[in-house]
Amino acid sequence: MKSLRFGGVKVSRRGLAGVRLDYEGTSICIDVVQPERCDYALYTHDHPRHAPAEDWSRVVVSPFRGNRIAPGESIELSNGVLVEAVHAYNLGIQETVKHPRGFGAGYVLEFRSGPRIYHMGDTDLIEEILSVKNKPLDIMLVPVGGDGVMTPEEASEAVKTLRPSIAIPVHWEDISKARIFKRLTQPYTQVVLLEVDRV
Amino acid sequence: MSARRIVPPSMRYKAIPIQEYRKVYEESIRKLEEFWGSEADMLRWSRKWSSIKSGEGPNARWFTGGLLSPFENIIGKHRGTSLWGKPALIGLDENGDAEAVSYAQLEMMVAKIHCALENLGLRQGDWVVVYSPPTLDAFAFMLAAIRAGLPFEPVFTGFSPYEMYRRVITRNAKALFVTARYMRRGKNIDVLGNSKSYLERLSSKGVLVILEGSGNKGVFLEYDDLLEYSCNSREVVVDSNHKLFGLHSGYAEDFKPITHAAGGFLVQAYSTSRWIGLRSRDTVFCTVWPGWITGVTYQLFGPLMLGSTVLLYNGGPDWPSWSRWLDIIDAYAVTVFITTGSAIRILAKQDPSIFKSKNDTLREIIITAEPLEPEFWYWSYEILGTLPYPIVDSQSSRNGSIPVLDMYIQSEVGTFLTGNLVNYTFTPIEPGSAGLPFPGFAVDVVDDSGIPVRGKTGKLVIRSPWPSTPVEAPQEFYESWNKGYYETGDLAVMSDSGYIYPAGRADAILKVSGYRLSPGAVEKSIMSDPTVEWALTVPMKNPDKFETPLVIYYGKAEEEEIVKAVREKVGPIATPERVVRLGVRPSLAPSAIRQEIAKVFRSEDIQSALRKLEFYLK
To answer: Which parts of the chain span the membrane according to its record (chain A) (predicted)?
Structure first.
């Protein structure tokens, strides 16, 4: 299925972990590598499958380019959406993991129309994500593919921990990963599988 | 009847022997009022009833003296719970674009519409009609009607604008909600364009016509404008016998209105929804649209009362391919799938590989409204009901994992009343059967004298009133109680152990794709052509749809004109499969021979039945 609208925000997928959020005539893209049509481009970390080498959009927010943001910091976009950065990293010996602590971020977006949406970035199930639980979470975009991000089983644990109303798996190429996540997670939240829209 | 009994692996530790079921069932029938009284205690009442049941037979009234808020019992009770922020409804269109609303958001929408309807002059007890596919806005409108104490009737969009018009007039409705257009099978269905003349006529009679999605302001009201209202309206508290909603049910002479009351219906809807296994953690996808009783009870009422998420889809099942419904089940992690036997028969013709691995969250499949032949039960169980992972042991199930349950329902009853109950008295499934009678429903199969028959075809009857006994019904409903029990009009076989095997209608009413169609209404549509002097409609056996209309007529009109008249006056759902033009005008009135000829066409092949037709018409 192509898109899901909730509380005035339309969510659609773009690429591996990318999503586009349409809100009151503006578009916020997270990890979209071709952000030409995005008003705001947020990147979780500097990797060719998450961020372009060059950026064409008006506003860029990331830990490494444009309006730089670090976990724990927040920024308000000109459309009134509040963006808060959250840690995203892999567990283990930090020199050997794909995404060491401080390398990237996840984002919690709070929209004036109500929804609170969390894109986790490339992360494992780390304790810092518990900070997101301070308010109800509506939509959680969860990486489920394993190999640098959570496995479907770990991703399901993350959802059970944060209890969003809706969970959308991202960062998967083999649909069986998304389905394992769906099956394990379904009783605890509404899982929605979105197709990747290339446009 | 089926020789095999099956317990799906997922039910292995929940199934009970038939003897245990029998104890529960017989106790419920012996102490019927006590049974339903304890069920009613699970609802929220503002004032408890003074008597559980008063009156007998078709005049029985339930929970008299009780006061309750229907909206509180459907939506409001979830306020302040963990369910309040979860999706209540997900509306999906054919393009694959969906919108979800939480219980909290839904209540806000509903309250605004309630305010608007009050501001527009509607008062408690005024009827409203909804002519729409299942959409978020149509459901919010129906819930607003419930919140405001306005009885509502949903009209299936497979019925023509003329049939919708007739129902608005019959109900003396004060407002009509219409979805102006929607996509189906890749085409734009222009409901507004097709209905405009009838909408204008209704508007001139003082009916508030509210259009959703029309995109332009004209003489009608815009649904979006309703959402601008705000006020302090509170959900109404009504008497148990307050008219909650109604449908037009197919009778021999015409479609006729029946109405369900708030208290009894909500008790039945809540109890049966729990029994069939709905839970707050479920996502329910019911392919039967509102306008038919399954779509009303198990899309609008039951799942929301239980705090489930309801998936509403307004597209076709075969667009862009026949995998569409399974794609939806896959994408939205659907756990309970409710559909018709006709749909299963068509799905069974498709390449099974298109359904593969898409059913992994399903817990049960419910088939409604018509008999399901054993071969199609097995197909459902082995293809749709076999999950791609083991259930209770390390071996993958190859021949079924989850229950596939055929259930019997009727508009006059309001809910399912036979079937295997996943969350109550689950006994082994007999493929081809519609299970055992639910506790609280005194179901029997009898001969013409009222004597119970087992192992052979008889009349399916209900010996005692049920909580949602209609508070308004046509004369035919009251006459069907003449022998002291309610004759459903359906035939069935009851096995010695009590399993019900529905066998179609006993009368001339047609069962098309699970939907009850009035032959008289089809005939009236044909007779609206002044060149037609005589018309009769009888059922033809159909391998996919169970039955389809066969029209026999005398007159100058061409056969294509007959089909056109039926489609325009009744709707596409009643399109005749075959039209037979007579050379001589029969002397007998159609109503005098309809039932006998229907019997012939149901029992014999078409050629043989057509040969006999001449004999009956002489």
So the answer is: none
Cα–Cα distance for residue pair A59/A79, rounded to 1 Å = 11
What amino acid occupies position A142? Answer: V
Model pTM?
0.96
A2, A182, A189: residue with CB nearest B97: A2
Q: Which of B92, B100, B335 sits opposite A166 (nearest CB)?
A: B100
Task: Tell me if chain B has a CB within 8 Å of the CB of A5.
Answer: yes
Assigned CATH topology for domain A3-197: Metallo-beta-lactamase; Chain A (3.60.15)
- The string of DSSP codes covering chain A is --EEEETTEEEEEETTTEEEEEETTEEEEES-S--TT-SEEE-SSS-TTTS-SS--SSEEEESSSBEE--TT-EEE-TTS-EEEEEEE---S-TTTSSS-TTSEEEEEEE-TTS-EEEE--S--S-GGGGGGGGS---EEEEE-S-SSS--HHHHHHHHHHH--SEEEEES-SSHHHHHHHHHHHGGGSEE---PBP--
* Residue of B10, B78, B84, B90 to mutate for A, most A C-beta atoms under 10 A: B90
Query: What is the phi/psi pair of residue B361, to 5°?
Result: -100, -5
Which candidate from B309, B331, B357 shows the least CB-CB separation from A1? B331
Angle, CA B256 vertex, CA B544 and CA B158 arms, to 5°: 40
Which amino acid is located at B199 in the chain?
L
Q: For residue range B475-529, what is the model confidence (pLDDT) as tens digits?
A: 999 999 999 999 999 999 999 999 999 999 999 999 998 889 999 999 999 999 9
**Number of neighbours of residue B185 by Cβ within 10 angstroms:** 12
CA–CA distances in Å: residue B283 to residues B278, B279, B290, B472: 9, 9, 18, 33
Within 8 A of B361 by CB-CB distance, chain A residues are: 182-183, 186
Q: Is B309 on the interface with A (CB under 8 A)?
A: yes
* Coil, strand or helix at B567: helix
DSSP string for residues in B195-214: HHHHHHHHHHTT-EEEEES-
- The separation between CA B614 and the C-alpha centre of its own chain, rounded to angstroms, equals 37
Q: What is the pLDDT of residues A100-120, one digit of tens each?
A: 999 999 999 999 989 999 999
